[in-house]
């Protein structure tokens, strides 16, 4: 225990000194050059950290002063007051106080109690701070004044009140945690000025010094035991040498440069490989450099346990103060990290733990009410993965309250209420990382000043890491910090795209694939709805092209099918995707340098590095690239993992449909299901001709009849789009073997909707129904219905199916009859699947759907009790098409009696014959609901006529 | 400070036009003379192999390797929209701004010129606002006008364009 405390203490001292130096520099600069936002923010952050660690060790005077300094700086940081000499002076005095205190603490390991110099400084500080608040009147031009006696402006009154409350809280706090022989005598009594003044202002009683003394006596007993253990520490240190971190840093830098030269040498050796001696030497140099690099890295590696063990005391300390029962579990403390990484991650971790204790964990009552164990659990887990170190802080507290977060975010003007309403759960949760955010109702000196999580994120990202969180309201929160093992040198794969070299960090690299498009295997790159996918050992992975993402050079699917393609499989936060590159070069160790500030928004690049030959190559940010290619992120609640859904998988199994939004001269939006759209064209008005009264146009060696949708609908609204332009948009539909052109006023956009078509309100032919999205409805046009209707007007003769329908409809309870029958419907397009299912169900049948042939077979096989009376299947389906499916069904004895219809857009004579051979009784056309039902009826009921008559 | 002021006052008795002077590293862009304050310029280098950055704006020409450091090259011609008759080669004027190494690409480098504050004038209103923000002002020199580049504003502009 005490070994740790010894080293923890030394670290504290060193860190404080470092920060004090930095503050001193920054203050000087501010004094010389005036207010600079970043400098002041840096001073603020350092003081915040000094305050925290001082309190941790029980140095309350230092903590006090730091807290007051923080309060003084806060309005300056937020640019609410102007910089004044007085403010600077107070900061200087405060810093002096802390420096001197620190000196004493270093020697004696406790805060000096009766140091005259310090006391004077303290008094000076307090009075100087008061003056600021008095003068703040002039600076802030605050109109509200306090009572005339004190003439202190209102905002300063609040500050003073705050300080008073806080200082009394600090003194009630358990001074230290028994680490040292430290007994903090009541400091309040030694600083008369503030409390007395505030007592006048706020009329609250002073903290009684007697209470303090009682508490201090208790801790004294504890700390005495610790003293004995300290003496044994000295012996263990003989095996080690203390080395300045700066020295190790320069060592790392030199090794870094050596690595670069080594790379250059190797490149040179590759091209000049005639001299065997030279090759031998360069090879030897290569091995030595790699070893040297490894060893130097090791010198800076420290087990993360060093900083983690301090946390058990933090938890004990804070939990006692807040009256909560918390248990801390540390897992993986032997995980090693580079020293600079540990330094950088220390503060963020502290913040997160404190936040968890302060905000996350509920008090005992609330926990009991929620049915949780009274003792809360906080776990800190550290482990290695994929060349990164992952640190998880898991608590079983109350989780993130989305409502409060949204409210606070809007309140602090971080985001508008409109934007919030459109955000996903995860996005709202991530708002806590915004600068200036804090949902703490009051500012405690633990957390709540709005500095915490933002600082965490900045610090972690500075060292190339990421912060993520998973939280369930009511259950708890997990914060995940991922940091790269090595900051400087990164192993990377060099690839080429468009003759330019790019580096991909190996930690994100999963696999390299060489796909020969000419081979006939099932593992091919296939197009799917305009995107590319690849079947990697059965799993479907989206593929994007690097040249397309960077240079907008689209890849031709036929090109892929005729050539060899190089694909790099990458891991973007547990989501796999493939990247097509022109060439794969070599792997190399590179030193990544960040891009200039104004280029940071290019999320696809994480930096630039200098290659062996002196040229610069950009490093790809794998997550950024995935985002750019629109592979969105969402987390599932069931498994605590982030799973990324891509557009492509949505198409496959979920009910998301694309519609083409058009203008038909109505105030509502109209849509045409994209799956029936063959092409969208625009023709000159002059190119339209007439055959009789039918408008036509010459299109691809034949005549395209043009049906105008606005005219057909005969809507009585005034057209908002004037037909002044010379061109008319035509949507080309293919129906069976024939093409039709649908004339509209304008084509707007393509939209994705996952809701079903509501068929309750349609007042005329030409409308299928409506779908509703967010704030409006979209009317879906029944194109095939319209074509059918218009064709009837043109040609003579009706189909006989109408007659049949009337026949059967006359039978009473026809719906009831149908409900006894179950239909299996296989169709890959979710729109049609939806639509036909709705139509069939509306008519009374019960329907089960499948998304491809094999899925349909599964359904048939898996539930032999479920008797299917009918099978309806599409032909064009992935995995197993309709024909194969039909053949399979016919093979099975217990299934081959079920009548099968094909419902498809492909029905040329040849298709129909092939289909009938496979086992389909009839071929039907999609989107012709009436015939569908009548034909199904006639098949089912006519064949069961005898049964029906007898029933 | 006290001494300097006495010197100044004595000078003003001699010549009323002796004020402070500034030194600028000057260069040509489309045959017009521009300058950057000498204190801001780290070095001047010839054109070197540049790696272009896909998806970056037009005026970000690419990255160059400057003795182990990566510098970002900004095309001043593109920023000022002098887009016709681009020369074959450029000269790079490297400045260190806000911790980044920025290399401004210009047509031709000229001498370091010293000018007097007396000859300073505001940039004329005839120049469009956005380009005017890139300049601090104009100095009158024999036979020509020297427009001075406002490096900070350029950086601000680059940062804002996100």
Verbal overview:
The complex is a heterodimer of chains A (951) and B (162). Chain A is of the alpha+beta class and 951 residues long. Chain A is built from 32 helices and 36 strands. In chain A, strands 10-14-15-13-12-11 form a 6-stranded mixed beta sheet. The C terminus of chain A is likely disordered. Chain B is α+β, with helices and mostly antiparallel strands. Chain B is built from 4 helices and 11 strands, in the order αβββββαββββαββα. The N terminus of chain B is likely disordered. At the A-B interface, β17 and β18 of A face β4, β5 and α4 of B.
- Please count the helical segments of chain B: 4
Which two chains touch over the largest interface? A-B, 23 and 25 residues
Question: How far is the first residue's CA from the last residue's CA of chain B?
Answer: 45 Å
Q: Give average pLDDT of chain B, whole number.
A: 83
The structural class of chain B is alpha+beta
Low-confidence stretches of chain B: 1-16
Total of helices of chain A: 32
CA radius of gyration of chain B: 18 Å
Q: What is the number of E strands of chain B?
A: 11
Distance between the termini of chain A: 87 Å
Q: What is the H/E order of chain B?
A: HEEEEEHEEEEHEEH
The outline of chain B comes out as globular
Helix vs. strand class of chain A: alpha+beta
Strands side by side in the biggest sheet of chain A: 10-14-15-13-12-11
- Measured on Cα atoms, how large is the radius of gyration of chain A? 37 Å
Please summarize the sheet with the most strands of chain B.
6 strands, mixed
Looking across the biggest beta sheet of chain B, what order are the strands in?
A: 8-1-2-11-10-9
Give the strand tally of chain A: 36
Low-pLDDT windows of residues of chain A: 137-159, 162-237, 445-450, 632-654, 796-804, 945-951
Describe the main β-sheet of chain A briefly: 6 strands, mixed
């Amino acid at each position: 225990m005490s070994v740790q405390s010894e080293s923890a203490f030394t670290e504290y001292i060193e860190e404080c000194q470092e920060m004090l130096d930095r503050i001193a520099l920054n203050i000087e600069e501010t004094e010389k050059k005036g207010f600079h936002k970043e400098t002041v923010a840096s001073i603020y952050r350092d003081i915040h950290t000094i305050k925290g660690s001082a309190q941790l060790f029980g140095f309350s005077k230092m903590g006090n002063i730091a807290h007051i300094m923080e309060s003084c700086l806060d309005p300056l940081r937020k640019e609410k007051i102007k910089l004044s000499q007085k403010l600077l002076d107070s900061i200087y005095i405060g810093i002096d106080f802390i420096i001197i205190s620190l000196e004493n603490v270093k020697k004696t390991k406790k805060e000096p109690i009766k140091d005259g110099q310090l006391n004077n400084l303290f008094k000076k500080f307090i009075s100087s701070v008061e003056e600021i608040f008095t003068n703040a009147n002039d600076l802030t031009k605050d109109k509200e004044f306090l009572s005339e006696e004190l003439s202190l402006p209102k905002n300063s009154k609040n500050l003073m009140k705050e300080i008073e409350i806080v200082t009394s809280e600090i003194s009630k706090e358990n001074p230290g945690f028994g680490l040292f022989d430290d007994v903090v005598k009541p400091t309040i009594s030694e600083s008369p000025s503030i409390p007395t003044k505030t007592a006048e202002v706020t009329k609250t009683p002073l903290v009684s010094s007697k209470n303090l003394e009682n508490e201090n006596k208790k801790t004294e007993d504890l700390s005495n035991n610790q003293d004995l253990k300290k003496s044994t520490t000295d012996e263990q240190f003989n095996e080690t040498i203390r080395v300045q971190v700066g020295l190790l840093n320069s060592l790392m830098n030199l090794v870094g440069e050596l690595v670069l030269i080594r790379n250059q040498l190797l490149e040179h050796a590759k091209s000049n490989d005639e001299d065997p001696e030279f090759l031998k030497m360069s090879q030897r140099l290569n091995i030595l450099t790699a070893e040297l690099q490894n060893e130097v890295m090791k010198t800076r590696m420290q087990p993360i346990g060093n900083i983690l063990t301090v946390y058990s005391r933090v938890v004990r300390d804070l939990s006692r103060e807040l009256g909560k029962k918390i248990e801390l579990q540390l897992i993986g403390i032997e995980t090693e990290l580079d020293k600079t990484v540990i330094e950088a991650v220390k503060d963020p971790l502290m913040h997160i733990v404190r936040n968890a204790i302060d905000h996350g964990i509920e008090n005992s009552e609330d926990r009991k009410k929620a049915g949780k164990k009274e003792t809360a659990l906080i776990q800190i887990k550290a482990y290695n993965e994929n060349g990164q170190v992952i640190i998880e802080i898991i608590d079983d507290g109350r989780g993130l309250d989305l409502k409060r977060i949204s409210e606070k975010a809007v309140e602090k003007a971080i985001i508008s209420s409109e934007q919030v309403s459109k955000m996903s759960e995860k996005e709202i949760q991530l708002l806590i990382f915004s600068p200036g955010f804090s949902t703490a109702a009051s500012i405690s000196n633990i957390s709540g000043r709005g500095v915490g999580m933002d600082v965490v994120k900045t610090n972690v990202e500075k060292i190339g890491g990421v912060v993520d969180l998973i939280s369930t309201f009511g259950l708890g929160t997990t914060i995940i910090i991922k940091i790269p093992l090595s900051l400087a040198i990164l192993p990377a794969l060099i690839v080429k795209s468009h003759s330019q070299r790019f580096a991909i960090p190996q930690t994100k690299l999963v696999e390299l694939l060489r796909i020969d498009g000419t081979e006939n295997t099932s593992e091919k790159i296939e197009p799917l709805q305009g995107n590319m996918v690849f079947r990697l050992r059965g799993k479907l992975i989206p593929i994007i092209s690097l040249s397309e993402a960077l240079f907008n050079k689209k890849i031709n699917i036929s090109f892929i099918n005729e050539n060899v393609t190089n694909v790099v499989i990458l891991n973007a936060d547990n989501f796999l995707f493939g990247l097509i590159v022109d060439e794969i070069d070599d792997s190399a160790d590179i030193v990544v340098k960040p891009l200039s500030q104004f280029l940071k928004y290019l999320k696809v690049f994480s930096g630039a590095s200098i290659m062996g030959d002196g040229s610069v190559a950009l490093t790809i940010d794998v997550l950024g690239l995935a985002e750019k290619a629109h592979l969105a992120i969402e987390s599932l609640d069931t498994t605590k993992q982030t799973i990324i859904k891509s557009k492509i998988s949505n198409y496959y199994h979920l009910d998301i449909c694309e519609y083409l939004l058009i203008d038909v001269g109505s105030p509502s939006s109209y849509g045409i299901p994209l799956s029936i759209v063959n092409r969208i064209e625009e023709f000159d008005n002059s190119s339209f001709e007439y055959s009789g009264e039918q408008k036509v146009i010459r299109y691809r060696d034949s005549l395209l009849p043009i049906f105008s949708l606005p005219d057909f609908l005969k809507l009585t609204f005034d057209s908002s789009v004037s037909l002044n332009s010379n061109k008319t948009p035509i949507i080309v539909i293919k129906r069976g073997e024939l093409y039709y052109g649908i004339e509209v006023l304008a084509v707007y956009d393509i939209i994705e909707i996952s809701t079903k078509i509501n068929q309750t309100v349609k007042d005329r032919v030409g409308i299928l129904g409506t779908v509703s999205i967010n704030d409006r409805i979209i009317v879906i046009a029944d194109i095939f219905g319209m074509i059918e209707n218009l064709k009837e007007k043109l040609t003579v003769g009706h189909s006989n199916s109408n007659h049949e329908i009337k026949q059967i409809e006359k039978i009473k309870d026809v719906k009831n009859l149908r409900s006894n029958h179950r239909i299996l419907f296989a169709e890959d397009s979710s729109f049609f699947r939806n639509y036909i299912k709705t139509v069939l169900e509306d008519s009374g049948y019960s329907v089960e759907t499948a998304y491809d042939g094999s899925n349909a077979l599964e359904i048939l096989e898996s539930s032999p009790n479920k008797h299917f009376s009918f099978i309806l299947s599409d032909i064009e389906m992935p995995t197993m098409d309709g024909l194969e499916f039909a053949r399979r069904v016919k093979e099975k004895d217990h299934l081959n009696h079920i009548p099968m219809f094909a419902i498809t857009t492909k029905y040329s004579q040849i298709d129909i014959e092939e289909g009938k051979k496979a086992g389909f009784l009839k071929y039907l056309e999609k989107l012709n609901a009436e015939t569908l039902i009548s034909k199904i009826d006639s098949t089912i009921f006519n064949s069961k006529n005898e049964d029906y008559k007898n029933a | 400070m006290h001494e300097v002021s006495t010197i100044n006052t004595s000078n003003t008795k001699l010549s009323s036009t002796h004020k402070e002077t500034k030194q600028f590293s000057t260069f040509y862009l489309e045959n017009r003379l521009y300058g950057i304050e000498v204190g801001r310029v780290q070095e001047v280098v010839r054109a070197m192999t540049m790696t272009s950055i896909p998806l970056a704006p037009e005026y970000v020409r690419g990255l160059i390797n400057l003795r182990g450091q990566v510098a970002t090259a900004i095309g001043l011609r593109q920023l000022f929209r002098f887009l016709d008759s681009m020369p074959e080669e450029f000269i790079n004027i490297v400045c260190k701004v806000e911790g980044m190494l920025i290399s401004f690409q210009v047509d031709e480098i000229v001498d370091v010129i010293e000018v007097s504050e007396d000859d300073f004038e505001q940039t004329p209103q005839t120049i469009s606002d956005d380009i005017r923000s890139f300049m601090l002002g104009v100095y009158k020199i024999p036979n020509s006008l020297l427009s001075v580049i406002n490096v900070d504003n350029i950086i601000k502009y680059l940062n804002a364009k996100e």
